[in-house]
Amino acid sequence: MRRILQGVMIANAPMLCWSCRGPTPAGLFCATCRTILPPVAGEDLFGLFDIAPTFEPDLTILEKRYRDLQKQLHPDFFAHCSGTERRLSLEWTTRINEAWQTMSDPVTRAGYLLRLAGWHAERPAVDPEFLEEVMELREALEEVDPRAPDAISRLMSLKTAARIRLEFEITRIGELFRGNGDSSLGEIAKHVDRMRYHRRYLEELDRLEDRAFDPDM
Amino acid sequence: MDILLEITEPGQSPLPHENTPRSRKRVVGIDLGTTFSLVAAIGLDGLPLCIPDENGTQALPSVVHYGPKGSVLVGWPARDLLVQHPESTIASVKRYMGRGVAEIRARSGTLPYTLEAGEGGMVRILAGKAKVSPVEVSAEILKRLKARAEEALGGKLQGAVITVPAYFDDAQRQATKDAARVAGLEVLRLLNEPTAAALAYGLDRGHEGLYAIYDLGGGTFDISLLKLEKGLFQVMATGGDSALGGDDLDQWIVDRVLARMAITQPDPGLIQACRKLAREIKEQLSDTESVTFDVPDTASNSNSGTKDLLTRTAFEQGIRDLVWRTIPICRRVLKDAGVSPDSLQGVVLVGGSTRVPLVRRMVAEFFGREPLVDLDPDQVVALGAAHQAEVLGGNEPAEMLLLDVTPLSLGIETMGDLMEKIVPRNTPIPTARAQEFTTFKDGQTAMAIHVVQGERELASQCRSLARFELRGIPSMTAGAARIRVTYQVDADGLLTVAAREETTGVEQSIAVKPSYGLTDDEIADMLRDAMRHGEDDMRARLLNEARVEANRVLAAAEAALREDGDLLNEAETQRVKSAMVSLLEATQGEVAEAINERVTQMDVQTRFFAQRRMDRSLQKVMTGRKVDDFA
Lengths: 217, 631
Hints:
The complex is a heterodimer of chains A (217) and B (631).
Chain A: H1 2-6, E1 14-16, E2 23-25, H2 45-48, H3 59-73, H4 83-104, H5 106-116, H6 128-142, H7 151-177, H8 185-213
Antiparallel strand pairs in A: 1-2
Chain B: E1 27-32, E2 36-42, E3 48-50, E4 60-61, E5 63-66, E6 72-74, H1 76-84, E7 89-91, H2 101-108, E8 114-117, E9 123-127, E10 130-132, H3 134-153, E11 159-164, H4 170-182, E12 187-192, H5 193-205, E13 209-216, E14 221-229, E15 232-241, H6 246-260, H7 268-285, E16 290-296, E17 303-311, H8 312-324, H9 326-337, E18 346-350, H10 357-367, H11 380-392, E19 401-403, E20 410-414, E21 418-423, E22 431-437, E23 446-453, E24 463-471, E25 483-489, E26 495-501, E27 507-511, H12 520-532, H13 538-564, H14 570-588, H15 592-605, H16 607-622
Parallel strand pairs in B: 1-11, 11-12, 13-18, 15-19
Antiparallel strand pairs in B: 1-2, 2-3, 2-4, 5-6, 5-7, 8-9, 9-10, 13-14, 14-15, 16-17, 20-21, 20-23, 22-25, 23-24, 25-26, 26-27
Helix pairs in contact in B: 3-4, 5-11, 6-7, 6-8, 13-14, 13-15, 14-15
């Protein structure tokens, strides 16, 4: 798994600056004239933050890089610059935000890593053992009436249970990505799919909880 | 939120002399509030302060009175007239900014003045003799603050940061910007109120960490979650209700007073008297356990001699549900950001209504900590805006960067009036999101794109931002075309939508402009007016308008006589002509009201003529056609 992922890292090939036409390594700013450069096409989102593509990145470093990049590239700093520079700043920060959102959430992060590794199956095969669990979860959900007086406490306990399941899948996926157990892409995809299901289930619980708190919604 | 002024960055050639006091720009922060407005600037000691008026009062009531002779009063004198002249005195105009007539009626209930839909759906308020848009009313308030600041700073203002609720949508923001343009103010930026409040706290005290800004103003409620770090403010999530505020707390007292008086249909004057009383009672109840007050008299505005008592306990019971409405919104915002109340470093209170003890208690209880109240909750927004103006004006280095999010979800209407979210709320901006759609009919060659904003599931319940059509889709079977719709939101929060058919590359895009904005021509007109006229030229403008209208009526009457004069006998022709002469005479005078009156008279006196002309043209249409044509 690690081997496959390392293959997609983009080398810092030298290029010509669009502004001063001088040679410069790819990066944020031209080495010669300090003008903002275009983002490297096809560079993976992890590369953008200069960290190795992994399911368990150091989130503190991730956040620090995110902020550092914003402090250099945000459109506010280019308000007085040329149209091209303003457009590049917009392109950069749009990608940085996309990268940040993808990488800071385990569900989208796992999906992205799978795609990077070449997994393109639209939907994984039906997972019979999980199907039974899904039925039970749905049943529990349907039994809750958001207007009932005990709705909030019932929703809370369902949420706790769902969170534990989600955490369990995240841990499991972490292990698979590290190469423990059957780390074929298909197996990882199966667990990523379970993780997605639990996330959606939690979102649905949230909506019910909103309704329980605020019946006007 | 265009940046109209260039920012000098540290390390990007700021010349040393640029920061000398001589070249210091005269910039201010303005809190354009529902109930009160304030203007603040950085003082000589480097700290922001609110600029007082000639009486030493900092708050300017956001009230504008339109006098019968075209005079305009703003602030305290206007507020004093609310009771006597509610029909020509406009308060809380912020609630109408960027809204359509139907929305305002639904939200505000009975209003003392008439509303009319103007061009582009924008509201016109008939306040006494004046007919004004909310933008113009707001501009009057801004003009007053501008004059006050220019007096204090000793020269023309070079820019202003104006605050808006984070929850304001594009139309409301645009309307605010328009108001500034009409007032002749250069907008450096529209700043979200909670961010302004955080700036005031953050820069003054060097706080870092996660903060909730709870802002209960006169007419709006806002809650924002901000991550503060040196040089960077990151908005984690925002939420709110743009139709909930201190005015609603006052309204509870008003209703109670009216109920005590056994009045079901109060006149506007009485309502205003009760509102004034309610505000006083509310303020007193923040400090005392009960208030005894004089019940207003129905006949006059003096008091009836009857006394009534309201205890804090009764008041709190009455408003509990209203205040409680803010709590689920706080919950959602914390949830959107994925944080729990105990991970917060503090809760900042903004807005005069947060002085109400019940509000403080509920907030403290929900967040599990006592809120910060070091800065005056009425001033904190203006003070923060002054800080930001200083930075954007180039007087201070741009040390602070704000990373913002989309306050509301942006989506598209799909089959069955459903709202399909493309950019969810609280997405960091700038952002670009795409989604693929397909055709639902065989041979369909066009697709309607309806851009909507909001959290409701039905598109019709969300705010409509724009509609356009993608044409030239090749004829295919249903479901075969692949149409990629891309939403791009820039750092100022402005949206561009593009639709592209992937197999042919046919493309269509639109920069979303709010539907209740002003046209550029309207703005230009207002700007010209604002620059040319001072206080009392309103009269000249009204006179001019009246003359134009009179001339139009006269020209139409002449044409009618030319074409259909044969419909009238001698005496009737004479009647029409004499009405025309007396109108013509009035236009030579200097009184707009007299002209308007003659126009109305002439309309009445010539109505029979108009009716006959109508009959004749109908006959013409029908002559020579078979009955079948009309079946």
